[in-house]
Amino acid sequence: GETVGFFDSAGFEDLEAVEERMQEAKHNFSIEDHRIPQNVPESHWWWFNHFDEHLDMATRMGMRIEKFEKIIAILNKLEVDFQIEREVALRKFMEVLGRVFLSVFQFHPEESRSCAAAHQRLIMRHFTHIKRYLSELEAFLAEKSPYLSLWERACWERTNIEAFNVVCGEVARLDTTRVEKLMQEAWPCIKVMDTDTYFFSYSTPESHWWWSVDLGE
């Protein structure tokens, strides 16, 4: 039959040929779990591709520990003299920790906590800065009108905070009492939560209610 859309414009006349090419190329690419869209059919195998599927358990664990070491190393950048650079380093640490938590650490909580315990001194040395990340989110929620475009930022930052508490909570824990209250109060004002526009990771824990489209309806 006649081909349409992307494959026609790209010059592909046979979807089987496309499938064959993707199978040949799959070992050269990998997609992190948190980047996979929600509700992807299992038959769309190309979304679920990992470099490490052939590795043994010990090697995979070593790779996870290496990931954590790279993340925790970002904290060393908080020791610079310039406040702007400290702010950038703080946000990068929390954002990367949150993303890797969704794709890796939430499935290996004890392992990630052991890694955090090994860096207890470094975490505690910078805990004052890390607490500022929470207080800035609290201030943001208290001062800003809860428009949808701002709510996504709040969702990501809250998930990053929860990731810190899961991974590093036995070393130092952020008190989320006030931010929980602020988000609960803001939720009824969020009139639209468009899943076609917004990114929702299928691996987001159910306890992260702020991503839910059903709450409050």
Question: What is this entry, summarized?
Answer:
The protein is mainly α and 217 residues long. It is built from 9 helices and no strands. It starts with a helix and ends in a 31-residue tail after the last helix.
Tell me the total number of β-strands.
Answer: 0
Spatial gap, N to C terminus:
46 Å
Give the mean pLDDT. Answer: 77
Order of helices and strands: HHHHHHHHH
What kind of oligomer do you see? single chain
The amount of helix comes to 40-55%
Outline: globular
Percentage beta strand:
under 5%
Q: List low-pLDDT spans.
A: 1-13, 192-199, 213-217
Can you offer a commentary on this structure?
There is one protein chain. With 217 residues, the chain is mostly helical. It has helices at 5-9, 15-25, 57-73, 83-103, 109-118, 120-125, 127-143, 148-168, 177-186. α3 (57-73) packs antiparallel against α4 and α4 (83-103) packs across α8 (148-168). The longest helix has 21 residues, at 83-103. Mean pLDDT is 77; it is low at 1-13, 192-199 and 213-217.
Tell me the layout of helices and strands:
Blueprint: H1 5-9, H2 15-25, H3 57-73, H4 83-103, H5 109-118, H6 120-125, H7 127-143, H8 148-168, H9 177-186
Question: What key attributes describe this structure?
Answer:
globular, disordered C terminus, 217 residues, disordered N terminus, mainly alpha
